[in-house]
Design goal:
Elements lengths: L1 E5 L2 E4 L4 E8 L7 E7 L6 E7 L5 E3 L7 E6 L4 E6 L8 E8 L13 E2 L3 E6 L1
Parallel strand pairs: 2-11
Antiparallel strand pairs: 1-3, 3-8, 4-5, 4-9, 5-6, 7-8, 9-10, 9-11
Length: 123
């Protein structure tokens, strides 16, 4: 499975961005996809995840009510709609895919990773 993320950019606090992640290759094997982010000098952290064949979603507390994860299976595309952005959301955002059950909020639970797209929120 190959993943290509896009949609990052510079936005003012309170603004919105929508990230996309296109999956290719053995997409039929995808069980779950997620978004992680890594700010400068910090560890990679879980943001949100979605099951590939159900409506199950889960978010980290800091983005609940502001971010929405979704997918379009026909386009093999994962999305992250980010609203009410804050400077602390500034990070490199990575999409990831899992092909089996695992720790769905841990990076170790995902076998495939995109290259990341940078989100910068100015105050």
């Amino acid at each position: 499975v190959q993943l290509q993320a896009s949609g990052g950019g510079l936005v003012q606090a309170g603004g919105s961005l929508k990230l996309s992640c296109v999956a290719s290759g053995r997409t039929f094997s995808i069980y779950r996809m997620g978004w992680f982010r890594q700010a400068p000098g910090k560890e990679r952290e879980f943001v949100a995840r979605i099951a590939w064949n159900t409506v199950s979603t889960y978010y980290t507390d800091s983005v609940k009510g502001r971010f929405t994860i979704s997918r379009d299976n026909a386009k093999n595309t994962l999305y992250l709609q980010m609203n009410s952005l804050k400077p602390e959301d500034t990070a490199l955002y990575h999409c990831a895919a899992a092909t089996s059950l695992g720790l769905n909020t841990k990076a170790s639970g995902y076998a495939y990773w995109g290259q990341g797209t940078l989100v910068t929120v100015s105050s």
